[in-house]
Amino acid sequence: MGIWKIEETEEFFKGNVPQHRDVTHPHKRLQHLAGRFLLQFLFPDFPYELIQIADTRKPFLPGDEYHFSISHCGDYAAAIVSRDSRVGIDIEVPAEKIIRIQNKFLSAVEKETFLDGHEPAEHSILTILWSSKEAVFKWYGNGEVDFKKHILLEKNHKNPDIINCTFGKTDQQLVIHFRQFNHLVLSWIIN
């Protein structure tokens, strides 16, 4: 797993990894290339040239030689790679706008559990919860997930850097790891 602060030019990344799809916006293209570069940085033999994109827009390798997930936000890219387990990762820069959409992704029970009745909720905890659900969505990879209905988050009282999750589409119990540092939130899952 790694995070890359994007400070390089597009030419730097294009000289090291191919672009797999047409990305017209210059900054989005830079994020796209940085994420693929990070895969190669983590695993030098990663066959990034074989990456395909599923109908759900999830990148994958035929034959699952590696399981991987990429995320980007602002000037950062994050990636996680495993030879054995499905993975999902999400990186976010906390922003006030998350407060406006919290009812779209949090159930009443989750709000009670994580927000302890504090209104308005702080955007930092809301970003952790959103990022955790995004990591599960990317781990699943098959689309058609209702964040409020299918991804149910629960506090882990033994470890404050872990969120327990019941994933309703497969009835699986998952463990989501997260870190908040500087001005970033990083969430990931390995299962």
Cα-to-Cα separation, first versus last residue: 14 Å
Q: Would you tell me which CATH topology of the largest domain applies? A: Ribosomal Protein L22, Chain A
Care to count the β-strands? Answer: 10
Strand content: 25-35%
Query: From the coordinates shown, what is the CATH architecture of the largest domain?
Result: Alpha-Beta Complex
Indicate the low-confidence ranges by residue numbers. none
**What is the arithmetic mean of pLDDT?**
91
Rg is 17 Å
Order of helices and strands: EHHEEEEEHHHHEEEE
- Principal-axis shape: globular
Q: Class of the largest domain in CATH? A: Alpha Beta
Main beta sheet: strand number and arrangement?
Answer: 5 strands, antiparallel
CATH superfamily of the largest domain: 4'-phosphopantetheinyl transferase domain
Strand order of the largest sheet: 6-10-9-8-7
- How many individual domains? 2
The helix content is 25-40%
What's the total helix number? 6
Structural class: alpha+beta
List the SSEs and their pairings:
Elements (H helix, E strand, L loop, with lengths): L1 E4 L4 H5 L11 H17 L9 E2 L5 E2 L6 E7 L2 E7 L4 E6 L5 H8 L2 H8 L7 H18 L6 H4 E5 L6 E6 L4 E10 L2 E7 L1
Antiparallel strand pairs: 1-5, 2-3, 4-5, 6-10, 7-8, 8-9, 9-10
Helix pairs in contact: 3-5
